[in-house]
């Protein structure tokens, strides 16, 4: 991973193109809780809800679904997730030009942190803009 401890200046928030939240669950034990949280998110926030992954995918060592969202949504969505995640773990990370650093060095965890396979993530990649939302919020956060 890139060593940023010797950078001569602070990094700019302009490095962040968007955010992802990965909501982890057990397909047999906590999927109903994840389904409820997913529905609540869709009712309250303008985000892109990704597919269900009941098996390990990419660097993720547990079943999960992704929530992609614009930087403007962060101040409302992330605190709401902190209060409503129940027993689920959630990884929230920025999307910059360094996916490995985004997932391993710069994330925040809501609930217990889980293992990730960093070797499956590149150190360089395109900055991922937030996709068009696929939710239609009708409730306030």
From TrEMBL:
According to the record, the residues making up region (Disordered) are 120-141
Is Ribosomal protein a UniProt keyword of this protein?
Answer: no
**Which InterPro entries does its entry note?**
DOPA-like_sf, DOPA_dioxygen
**What are the boundaries of the signal sequence?**
none
GO molecular-function term, one example from the UniProt record? dioxygenase activity
- What keyword terms does UniProt attach to this protein? Dioxygenase, Oxidoreductase
Q: Does the keyword Glycoprotein apply?
A: no
| Protein name listed in UniProt | Aromatic ring-cleaving dioxygenase
